[in-house]
Amino acid sequence: MGERADVWQGTLALMVLKTLQALGPLHGYGIARRIEQTSGDLLAVNYGTLYPALLKLEQEGYISSEWGTSDNNRKAKYYKMTRAGRKQLEKEAREWEQTTEILARFLSPGKESA
Amino acid sequence: MRKFRALLLRLDGLFRRERRERELAEEMESHLLMHIADNLRAGMTAEEARRQALIKLGGIEQTKETYRDRRGLPMLEIMLQDFRFASRMLRKSPGFTGVAVLTLALGIGANTAIFSVVNGVLMKPLPYRQPDRLVMIFLHGRGLDHGPMGNADFLALGERQQAFEHVAAFSPSSIGFTLTGLGAPQMIPGTSVTPDFFSVLDVKPDLGRTFLPEEGKPGGNLSVIVSHHFWEQFLHADPAAVGQSMTLDGKGYVVIGVLPLDFHFGPHNELWPVLQLRPAQQRPPYWLLPVGRLKADVSEAQASADASRIAKQVQEQFPHSEDASAVVVPMKELTVGNVSEALLILLGAVGFVLLIAVVNVANLHLLRYGSRVREFAIRAALGAGRRRLICQLLVESLILAASGGVLGLAVAYGGVRAMLALSPDVLPRMEEITVDGRVLAFTVLIVIATAILFGLVPALRCAGPPVGQSLKEGSRAATSGRSARRLHGALVVAEFALALVVLTGAGLLIRTLSQLESVNPGFNSSHIVTALLSLPRERYAKAPQITSFYEQLLERVKNSPGVRAVSITMSLPPNLLELTNPFHIEGKPDAPGQAAPAIAQIPVSTEYFATLGIPLFRGRLFLDEDRSPATHVLVINENMARRYFPDHEPVGTRIQTGEYNPKGDWYTIVGVVGNVKYEGLGEKDQPTMYVPYFDSGWCPWFVREMYVVVRSASAPEKVVSILQSAAWSLDNQLPLAHVRTMDQLLYESVASSRFRAVLFCIFAALALVLAMIGIYGVMAYAVSQRTHEIGVRVALGAQRRNLLRTILREGTTLALLGVAIGFAAALALSRTLAGLLFGVRATDPVTFLTVSALLMGVAFAACYIPARRAMRVDPVVALRYE
């Protein structure tokens, strides 16, 4: 559990929140698949890491869960974004955009010298 | 906020684990099924679909494990687990747990008890506002470092000082005040104070007010402030009692205030009458103790200079008086200064007892760990980290120490109560000794320290040998390893060394007490009853009233049945000396610039020497004719004769007492009597002069407070009632105070030495028992571990007697080594006791040899039992024993 994992968890949490915002209530497997699809094949998610991240989000009150039935009639635990989660998503998305923007400036030195 | 919420939920995650586990399993299951279904749809075979899904999930068990870590608090869970496991292990061996907890409870309890005494007496600030600014002011001179002041000095100080916020003076009454009008007449302890006394301490009464300045002037209203206890006992806790009047020493006082319940100043003061000081015609008598509160920016040295300046002015005003400067001493230093050494020594001794207890438990812990080596090896082999194992051992010792601590607090609480009840008044500020927050903190601290100390020993051992080796060694050889045995040995040696130091201290203090008790006080103490009579100034203003009272009293008591002799005296042996006075020998002028020596002067009635059984060496005793002022005689003791009349016969010589007056009366020495202790049994003999009480020449105003001494073969109660009725038949308002038998007085006079000796004895007994348990435990374990080996030896023809000797030698060698080390340590440390000893040197060989022998005897006895067991080992059984 080094720092790298924390960063990864942070990003994963953002992806989970975005996914739930886009698709509404969804079970763990669905969230994992959706993240993978969205990323193209660039991210290889170990699905197992998702569950501790979901638990953390739930403990922090950004998402809630309840048992439901999936499309093909299987029992599954559905995760749903809470109001706090929506706010958190906005905040984190904004921060993330800022970070990438700053990084982008660093990484394209052409504009800087112009 | 979010983080806190998460923390709470994670704490919650420690509970209802089964349901959560089931839900987690179900969630994983549904995840897998969905994934497999997708994979099947993608065209995989059933087996492949399942395999891929599992790979992608990263292994169900690993996932569950990381999930669990997030759900609860892993650190806490491990600790709880260790805790549960440790409690289970401790419950499984109740013998070990019981001995360990009891040992620690005694060690920690004794320490907590002594610490609460040290805390209450030495560490707590005095219970007044800004106590570090409170000082006492003394005259330094006339052969006294801390001498009291007279009216002239104090009144000048009060008027002219610039260094203090307030100054006041008090005069503790060693006798108390005669309270009449509220039930039977009684003597109530109290201290007279000048009006500013409570302003200096900054204490406000619960009820009423403090003194007004005019109440301190001669002729002002006589007022008194009473303690909360007095208010409850004598004034029925009635708020209307303020304003009520009562009679003290025959004078009417008005109660103006009731002090708070927790107010203490000196021992047992119930009454605080106002002191009205008259302007002085001369500088002596010196009888006032001034207190002051330093101004914020004034140092003690500056205050001393200020007070000395005033003392100088007073000396100029009374040129015949002796030169004296003034010193300022912090009040706390005066209150507790002379007991701090003894208390710290006690704390040190009890600390040693705790160390022995810790060593003992460490040893037990280690022995027990020895039999658990395989358990630890197996756990290590299954992947338990070294840290986990050490942690677990420390948790075990923490549980032991904490249980010991809780029990120890109970021991301490009981111990402190017992100590206060059994030895009242041996220490100042005893009423402030309680088990408070600081004491609790101290206990927690020593609990943690002891837990780490005795938990670390086996923990370090556990970190020692590689796992495989212990497993290979098997159970038998596990701790018979050389290093383990050496460690046990070292601990036993340490225990005996520590025990010897404590025992030596106890031995020296017991010898001190017995030496003190065998001191010859100079008289025959059996069958003597004493009591104090104090005639109130109001009804006994003139000399004839006083003398006639005492003459009639002596007459009545003497003629009562069973009374052999009776007399009155101003001072009482062994430690109630009330008056010292300078004296001058006729024809031998005082050395210029050197004050005449002040020695004990005791007015007594004619039969005093016969009553106490003080032997006459030369000349004669007092006769009834000596009552006449014309004869002017006095009797001196042997010490005075030897010291001041080394080369000529004192009998027949004339001397003068008090301030030298060439025109004054001279007194003829008529007899020399044996030395009597008046300043404590531990003090050297001092020169003493006895003067006839009824000779008005030496003291025209007569002393009103006199001790009555009765020698009678009757029971003390009977003598007391004779005294009581004789006194009441003359004056029904007179209380008898300070009623004691002389043997009681002697016993009480060595109370502090007894207090220290008894405490040290308790510690020594603890140390001895703990050391015994320690060596017994180690030897018994060693024998049980070596049953196999012993069996082989016996089978090969070893003499059983030899076996016994081998085991005994092993044990006593350890003890001897410990005793030798302890001997050296005790030699070095006993010097700190020197100030508390009497009649015995700190390196007293008898004490040292006796306690060493005692300790060796105990070691021998403790080793004998396991050694006998070794001797009786049946080789057949032993060889099968595996």
What is the radius of gyration of chain A computed over CA atoms, rounded to a whole number of angstroms? 16 Å
How much is the radius of gyration of chain B in Å? 38 Å
Unreliable segments of chain B (pLDDT under 50, ≥5 consecutive)? 474-480
Q: What are the low-pLDDT stretches of chain A, counting only 5+ consecutive residues below 50?
A: 1-7
What is the CATH first-level class name of chain A? Mainly Alpha
CATH 4th-level superfamily of chain A: Winged helix-like DNA-binding domain superfamily/Winged helix DNA-binding domain
Number of domains of chain A: 1
Broad shape of chain B: elongated
Helix proportion range of chain A = 55-70%
The largest β sheet of chain B comes out as: 7 strands, mixed
Strand line-up across the major sheet of chain A = 1-3-2
CATH fold topology of chain A: Arc Repressor Mutant, subunit A
Main attributes of the structure:
heterodimer, A: 114 residues, alpha+beta, Arc Repressor Mutant, subunit A, 3-stranded antiparallel β-sheet, 5 helices, 3 strands, 14% strand, globular, B: 882 residues, 4 domains, 7-stranded mixed β-sheet, 6-stranded antiparallel β-sheet, 26 helices
